[in-house]
Every structure is written in structure tokens, then in C-alpha cells.
Amino acid sequence: MVKSRQVAHSPLALDAMKNVGADLKQLVPDDLHSTIDNCLTKYEQHSDGQSAAESLKNGVWQMTFVANMSADPGLLLAALIAPGVSAQIMTMDDMEALVGETHAQSLSALLPALQHMSLIDIDIFSHDRGARNIQAMRKMLLAMVQDVRVVILKLVERLNHMNHLDSLSDKDSLAVATAVMDLYAPLANRLGLWLFKWPLEDLAFRYTHPEIYQNIAEQLAISRREREQHVQAMLDILNACIKNMGLEHVEVQGRAKHIYSIYRKMQKKKLSFNQVEDTLAMRVLVDNITDCYKVLSEIHANWPAKTTSFDDYIAMPKPNGYQSLHTVIMVDVMGLVEVQIRTHSMHQQAELGVASHWQYKEGAGTSDPWSSKVALLRELMAWQKELSKSSEHLSKTYQSIFADRVYAFTPNYDIMDLPRGATPLDLAYEVHTQVGHTCRGAKVNGKMMPLHTPLKTGDMVQVLTHKQGKPSRDWLNKSPVIVVTNKAKRKIAQWFRSESLVEYRQQGKQMLFKELKRSGLSQTQWQKFFPELGYKHQADLFAALGRGEAAVGSVMSAARSYFTGGDGRQPIFSLPQNAQSHEQTSQVRLKIDGGSMLSYRAGCCLPMRGDKVMGMLTASRGLSVHRIDCVNLQYLSHRYPEKMIDIEWERDIQTS
User: Fold this and answer.
1) Inter-axis angle of helices 538-547 and 552-564, to 10 degrees?
2) How many CB atoms lie under 10 A from the CB of residue 171?
């Protein structure tokens, strides 16, 4: 964990809230003004003024940054509130009161997802990652794919943090900068987020290689005025050149190259700073691709080009979607100057990457959000794979997160995390148990496919259901494998157990009440007797009878004993003559305390020679012999313990 070093602070005074609010309101839509006031009041009322002021400063900076990106209301509010949530100045329970129900729903997804992303820089390099942490990393990935605003929010937070590393110890600032250089800058690069990539790299480079950074910065500073003059002169020249072409909506930009990019060129080509020729970069933005090539032709007609430094990323875009024409020209006095030529939309793509073509604005969408999410997922996978090459530990993490998993999409573009080999039926049960139960087929990427089809990462799966549908026992077959997840197997098995239970209850009820009706037992008498059987609910007894775990004869025998008291008194209800068949009239001889006597086997459990048995004395028929595990015996022994006799079979006496 990063620890802050005690330094002097000059936090934003909380009595200046009105000025802060006025500044923020200029950046956001009018319908957010009252929400801004609510959030500022929450910061102001916090008991720890300094903590609130620091969190507010961070929130204001973040909100201002994303406002310049034309962010949606959800992202704007999340940027302002996230530091307060992190500092426990406000909680998720406060959200609805602060921002209203609509925005609260957006924040309830964004802010927890931001916390999942914090796992990246906290412990991704930990060598003690258990299954719980791997699962958390998966949640982080799903959060990023589900809503790219989470990535934007995290990168804004990291960029803000990098601007304040001087408040940390050297050791901690190095740790944070290393994480940014190893994790966040590559993430921004993979997603084409140049708006974050360059400043993150420069700020991190300042702490990871302070001496080299300082040396390059000093040499750039020495020639800064001259370089600024060159930039302005080049802007004037290009503007004049392009103006003569008669193109509309042309914008020309110029800048000195970033320190880290200069360092990378020095390393790659083994050059000293003085040997780096193109430290200036110009950019020309036009309306369409045709104009890009027209401008390129005009520039080459006016200045000699360095042929080995030409790249056409319009014809062959980079893997992250970046498009532009790059050329290096020789300009008198200035030397080599790099010129990038692209359309306005390509520039937006270059600055915001996936966030530009996939409208991350709240409630918005594109003509093909599935393709956009798949593209984002693949870039995140590539980012994680690059990270995994740095250590064996991270390689195992990558295997657990990606190589052993499949990430498929529903028609609502929700991403589902499944084990490799999972099928459309597994996905159906992952969506909802009832969707799985009523599944009758599936379309994978728009085509009907068998339910046992193994899914691949990026597949779009539409589950076809029928309201009268129900699981098939074939779904649990081992060949072909139709379900692989334990969840799906468990839910299917539970359904069949539940359905069987209904059938058992119905069968048991019919069996018992048929016998009770024959015996003349009234409902009133049955309700009086039932609690004596030890079942909490009648349905449990019916199920036991249906499954054969209890016998109707046992219940009837217990009822006779209950109403006669087991002493031969006149029963309240009488058994028809044919009901006597439930008892065995055959007699058996057993040992009793060294002697023997004639006895009869109880019809409820029908004990056989060799069974462990116990006897019960009756007033009219002698000794009733029961198996020791007889349900009826257990009831009778509890009610009439004085009538129980220990007995065993006599070896040489045959049953008559």
C-alpha cells in the first residue's frame, strides 16, 4: 500500500464552494447544476475539512478533464464524486439523494467497477493470488468491457494522481510511476487513448528514470524559445500552403514531441539527443480521406520527404484502430519535421480510441455495439497477454483469466464469463435459471446451432425459449456434453428432484387417503392423529410414502395403536375384514430373558429371521415383533416404553 509522506498542504478552502460551483456549472449541462450544488454541500458538511477539501480538489480536476472530452452526465458526476467515495466522505447509499434516481443507477454501476479496477495497481504483481483474487480480476475485466467509461474514469484518476507524486516518498512515487508505466500507459495505448498515453508516459518517466528525464528536459528547455518559434513558423507555412488548396474545415496543429517519445527514439536507434532530428510534430486535420492524400501530395511537392520515414496507417490501420498518414519532411533552418495527416474523426479516434467510435455516453449506442464490445474485449486480452510476458506469475494469472475462460455476449450486449467448453445451455442458466429450464434452442452469431456447441470468446448467443418448456434428462448425458458448468448441472438436477417430489407427494397422498377412507377415519380424527407421526408437514409424509421410505401399513398400525391405546379397547374407527391382511398372523418363536413364547410378525415392517428386532406386548394377541428400524416401532416405543421387550430369534425354531 502506498503511504503518503507528511507535507504541507494548501487545500481548497471550503468557504470558496460558490466559486467552485460556478466554475463547474460552466462545464456541464444546465440540468446538472442542482446536482453539482448537492455534491458540493456534501463535501462542505464533512467533519474532516482537510480530507474533504483534498477530495473535492481531485473531484473538480477530474470533472473538468472529462468535461473537455464532452463526457456524458454519468461520467461527469462519477469523476466528481469518486474521490469522495474513496475517502468515505459519501457512501453509495447517499447517491440517490445527491444525484437523483436516474444518475444514481449509473453511478451504482460505475463506482463499484472503479473499485474493481483498483485491483490492477494494488496487487496484480502479488505472488499470493488466490482464487478469490482471480475472480476479482475477472470482475474487473467484465466491468471494463461492459462500460468503457470505467476505463476512462480510472485513467483520469491515475493521471490526476501522477500530478501529485511529489507528496509521496521516493520509494512510493517510484512504485506508483512503475505501475503506470507497466500497466496504465500500455492499457491506454492498447485502447488507442492517446489523450492519456502521452502524459502518463511522460509523468511516469520522470520518476522511473529521473536523471535521463532531467537531461532531456534541460536540453529541450535550452532550445525551447527557438523550438516554439519554429513551431509557429511551421504552422504559418502549412496554413498558407493548404489555404491555396481551397479545402474547407482544415485545422493545423503543432507541438514539440513528448520527452518519453524522444527517449524511445534515442533507445531504438541508439542516438544521442543532438542526433534526434524530428523533435517537432505537426498535425493537419481535414474532412475526408481524399483530402488527406491531397494534403500529403501538396506537402511532398513543397518539401523533400524522408522516404524511409513514411507510414500509411489509413490504408493499414494499427491494431488498436489508429489511422493517420505520417511523413517526415526537410524544412530549411528547422531541419526534419514530422507531419501527421488525418481526418477529424480519425483524430478523435486517436485521442479517445475505443471511447470515440463506441459512444460511451449514458444511454447512447452505436449501430453495432456488439462489435465494439468484442473489439474492446480483444484489446484488453492483448493488453493482459503483453503483461503476462513480464513474469511467470502473471502468465499464470493470464491463463486463469483468459485461456481457461470464454466471454460471450447476450443480445442485450451483457458479457457472460464462462469456463472453456461452455455451451449455449450453460449461458442460458448463467442468465437465469428459468431461461435455462425453458431453453429450446440457441442462435450463435445469428445462426441456429445445437445446444452442445462449444462457445468461443466474442460469440453472440440468443437463447430461444418456450413458456411450456422444461429440462430434458438428456441434458445431463456425458455424450454429447450439453452442459459443463456446475451451476447448470445443479439446477437441472434440482428441477428433476422437485418434479419427482411433486409426483411422490401426489402418489403418497392418494395411497394414504384411499386407505384412510376404507378404514372410516374422519378428517377430524386424522388431523388429531397426524402430529403423532413426527412429520412437520403432511406433504413430507406424503413424499415419504410415495418414495417408499414409509409404509401405509405403518401409518395405519400407528393410528390403531393411538386410538385403542394399544390395550385392545374398542377403536374409534373399525377396520374392514380385508384390512386385517396388513398384519401377518403367522407365529414365530423367540428368546425372552432365557425363555421363549409364541409371537407374530408385525405387518408394518415384516421382520425376517436375521433382522434385528424388538417386541411389544399387546393385551389381545401377545408379542408383536418389529424390525428395530421400523417407523411404527419408534413411535410406539416413545409412547409405551413399558411395553417394549428385548428379544432375539431362536435358532432352531422354524416359522410355522
Assistant:
1) 130
2) 10
User: Which strand ranges, in their side-by-side order, compose the sheet holding 251-256?
Assistant: 251-256, 280-286, 335-343, 325-331, 311-312
Q: What is the pLDDT of residue 427?
A: 96
Q: Tell me the one-letter amino acid at 635.
A: Y
Q: Which residues, other chains included, contact 654 with Cβ-Cβ below 8 Å and sequence gap of 6+?
A: none
DSSP secondary structure letters along 291-318: HHHHHHHHHHHHS-B-GGG-EETTTS--
Average pLDDT over residues 224-237: 79
Measured torsion, CA atoms of residues 200, 204, 206, 212, in degrees rounded to the nearest 10: -100
Task: Report the distance separating Cα 148 and Cα 355, nearest Å.
Answer: 7
Winning range, highest mean pLDDT, from 138-142, 428-432, 593-597, 638-642? 428-432
Pairing of strands 595-601, 622-627: parallel
Which of helix, strand or coil describes residue 622?
strand
The answer to whether 143 touches 113, Cβ cutoff 8 Å, is yes
Q: How far apart are CA 306 and CA 322, in angstroms?
A: 22
Cβ density class 420-450: b for 16+ within 10 Å, e for less: eebbbbbbbbbbebebbbbbebbebeeeebe
Q: Cell for 620?
A: 389381545
Q: Would you say 637 and 567 are in contact if contact means Cβ atoms under 8 Å apart?
A: no
Kindly indicate the confidence band of residue 388, based on its pLDDT and cuts at 50, 70 and 90: low
Least Cα distance to 258 among 310, 311, 205, 180 occurs for: 205
Are 159 and 151 spatial neighbours (Cβ–Cβ below 8 Å)? no
Q: Which amino acid is at 230?
A: H
| Residue 439: all three cell numbers together | 431453453
Q: Residue holding cell 458526476? A: 77
Cα separation of 253 and 58, whole Å? 30
Q: For cell 430461444, name the residue.
A: 464
| CB under 8 A, 24+ apart: contacts of 411-420 | 411/460, 411/462, 413/369, 413/370, 413/373, 414/146, 415/142, 415/145, 415/146, 415/373, 415/377, 416/461, 417/138, 417/142, 418/455, 418/485, 419/484, 419/485, 420/454
Q: Give the integer Cα–Cα distance in Å for 107 and 91.
A: 11
Grid cell of 68 as nine digits: 473537455
Convert the pLDDT of each residue in 333-374 to its tens digit. 777 888 999 999 888 877 776 665 444 444 444 445 666 777
pLDDT computed for residue 157 by the predictor: 92
Helix (H) or strand (E) holding 440: strand 439-444
Phi/psi of residue 595, nearest 5 degrees: -110, -165
For the beta carbon of residue 537, count every other beta carbon within 10 angstroms: 9
In a 3-state reduction of DSSP, which class is residue 168? Answer: strand
**Closest among 110, 90, 116 to 35, alpha carbons compared:** 90
- The grid coordinates listed for 423 are 455451451
Please say whether the beta carbons of 197 and 159 come within 8 A.
no
Q: What is the tens place of the pLDDT at every residue in 191-225?
A: 878 888 889 999 999 999 999 999 988 887 766 67
